[in-house]
Amino acid sequence: MFERDRKRIDYLNDKIWRNDTTCVDMLRMNKARFFRFCQLFRDHALLEDTVHMCVEQQVAMFLHIVVHNVRNRVIRTNFGRSGETVSRYFNKVLNAIGELREDYIRPPSLDTPAKIEGDTRWYPYFKVCSSTLCHILNLFFDKPIIVLILTSLNIT
Known about the structure:
By secondary structure, the chain is mainly α. It has 2 domains: 3-104; 114-153, no CATH class. The chain has helices at 3-16, 20-27, 31-43, 55-68, 72-79, 83-99, 101-104, 114-117, 131-140; strands spanning 127-128, 148-149. Strands 1-2 form a two-stranded antiparallel ribbon. The longest helix has 17 residues, at 83-99. The radius of gyration is 21 Å and the shape is elongated. The N and C termini lie far apart (65 Å).
């Protein structure tokens, strides 16, 4: 194992997987959930270990970017990778999550939440478009969508 690989693993062990608190702070999930999440990608054959990076490193980089809105150069420095490598694996994990959409991502509800509908502070700012406009929009999109329109547009 090269020295750089040892440093990368040490970073993950010391800064991310040290304990549950640190893991939650860095990735917004505890260690058990993180490793189950990684196993999910392996089980569905969406991600696999490469010669250069294991699935856990790929997912940790992705989550760290998304959770903290961190730029590529920060991840590049923290994980000891090139910017191109960070970008490539970010896109791989993003595509893998997209492949799980049918099984694990629920489409949004078509109902207006009671908090918005019943409160004059919120409801005037949102309106569901007319049925004709929604029908026209649905012709162009695969799935039904909710179109929330600001009242200032005066589309009713």
